[in-house]
Design goal:
The chain is α/β, with parallel strands linked by helices. It contains 10 helices and 10 strands. It has helices at residues 3-14, 76-80, 98-104, 142-152, 158-175, 191-202, 233-238, 243-249, 265-271, 296-309, and strands at residues 26-33, 38-47, 50-58, 66-70, 108-112, 119-120, 179-189, 206-212, 255-259, 283-287. Strands 1, 2, 3, 4, 5, 6, 7, 8, 9 and 10 form a 10-stranded mixed sheet that branches. α9 (265-271) links the parallel β9 (255-259) and β10 (283-287). The relative contact order is 0.15.
Length: 310
C-alpha cells in the first residue's frame, strides 16, 4: 500500500468519535518566570466539558519565530522536572526533562496532561486555578479512563484519544506567531513516545519524530490495555498490520528511535521494514540497552536529530 492508503487504514482502525463537539479554546492561567525559559500555563479545551493543563515554554530573549517541538507525556510537570504549582524538584524525572532540555536548545516546546488527568470544566475556577502535583493520585485510574472512552464512544480507541489530544498541542504551536509552523517536531519517552510516534506519523504538520522506548512490537509493551487499543488490537494483528506500516504511513517523516528495554534489536529490524526511507539519515536508531530510562548521551543524540531536521 502507498503511504496515503496506509494512513487512511490506520485512522479507520483508530476510529473517530461521534457527537464529540467542543469549542477549541485556551485560558491563560499564569505566566511562569524561570531562569531557562519564559513559560505560559493554560487550561485547554480537549473534549466536551473537559480541560487539559497545557504548558508552553519559550527560549529567553526570543526575537523571531522559532522551531517548536510538542512533548506529550503524563503531565507537564514531569517534562520540566519540577512542580508547576510549588517549584519543588521532581527527582524521579531527572534526566528525562525533554521539554526543558529542548527549550534550552532554542526550541519552543508544548506539553500537556494525558487524558486520565483531565479536568471537569464545570469544577474549575478558571481565575483561581490551582493544581498541586500531589493531586494527580486522586484522579481515576488509566483503566477507568480507558473504559470511559470506549463506553462513551465505542467506535473510538484510547490511543485515538491520545492522538486527538496531542494534535491539540500541534494546533496551538502552528497558530502561534512566535513559532515557525513549517518546523514543528514531536518528541516523547515511554507513554510520551507512543503519543509522539502515532501523532507524528499521522499528522503532516510534524516534520521530525523522536520516540524513546515506547515499544515498536505489539508484544513488547502493553498495547492491548483498554487505554491504548484494548480488544481492537486483535483486529490489527489479524490484518497483519504492525508499526512498520504506521511509519510507512508517515510518508518518510524523519524518525529516530531510542531503544533501551521495551525497544531492542527486534524493534530496529521492524522499523527498517518501513518504506519511503531511501535517505537512511531519516531513519535512525540508537540502542543503549541499559533499561527503560534513556542515558544522557542518547537523549543528546536525539536532540541533535531534531536540530538537523527542524
Amino acid at each position: 500500500m502507498q503511504s496515503r492508503e496506509l494512513k487512511t487504514l490506520w485512522l479507520t482502525q483508530i476510529g473517530a468519535p461521534k457527537n464529540y463537539c467542543f469549542e477549541k479554546k485556551l485560558h491563560l492561567v499564569r505566566k511562569i518566570e524561570h531562569a531557562d525559559f519564559d513559560g505560559e500555563l493554560y487550561l485547554q479545551a480537549c473534549g466536551p466539558n473537559r480541560l487539559q493543563k497545557l504548558l508552553i515554554l519559550f527560549p529567553k530573549k526570543q526575537t523571531k519565530p522559532l522551531p517548536a517541538v510538542a512533548v506529550p507525556f503524563y503531565h507537564p510537570d514531569g517534562m520540566v522536572g519540577f512542580e508547576l504549582e510549588t517549584g519543588k524538584q521532581l527527582e524521579r524525572f531527572s534526566g528525562k526533562t525533554i521539554a526543558l532540555d529542548l527549550v534550552k536548545r532554542g526550541f519552543v516546546t508544548a506539553t500537556a496532561d494525558a487524558y486520565p488527568f483531565h479536568f471537569d470544566a464545570d469544577s474549575c475556577d478558571l481565575d483561581n486555578f490551582h493544581c498541586p502535583f500531589s493531586r494527580y493520585a486522586q484522579f481515576q485510574s488509566w483503566a477507568d479512563a480507558g473504559k470511559q472512552i470506549i463506553t462513551s464512544f465505542p467506535e473510538w480507541t484510547g490511543i485515538g484519544k491520545l492522538v486527538a489530544d496531542t494534535k491539540l498541542l500541534l494546533d496551538v504551536l502552528s497558530e502561534d506567531e512566535r513559532v515557525d509552523a513549517s518546523r514543528i517536531g514531536i518528541a516523547g519517552h515511554s507513554l510520551g513516545g507512543k503519543m509522539a510516534f502515532y501523532t507524528g506519523c499521522l499528522d503532516s504538520r510534524v516534520k521530525a519524530i523522536l520516540a524513546s522506548d515506547f515499544g515498536m512490537e505489539w508484544n513488547s509493551t502493553n498495547w492491548s490495555e483498554v487505554w491504548y487499543w484494548g480488544d481492537k488490537l486483535a483486529r490489527m494483528k489479524q490484518l497483519g498490520i504492525d508499526h512498520s506500516h504506521l511509519l510507512t504511513a508517515s510518508g518518510g517523516t524523519p524518525f529516530m528511535l531510542i531503544a533501551g528495554e521495551a525497544d531492542n534489536e527486534a524493534s530496529i529490524d521492524l522499523m527498517h521494514k518501513a518504506e519511503g526511507y531511501e535517505d537512511l539519515l531519516k531513519l535512525i536508531c540508537i540502542n543503549h540497552a541499559t533499561g527503560h530510562n534513556p542515558p544522557r548521551y542518547a537523549l543528546e543524540l536525539g536532540y541533535q536529530f531534531l536540530e538537523k531536521w527542524l
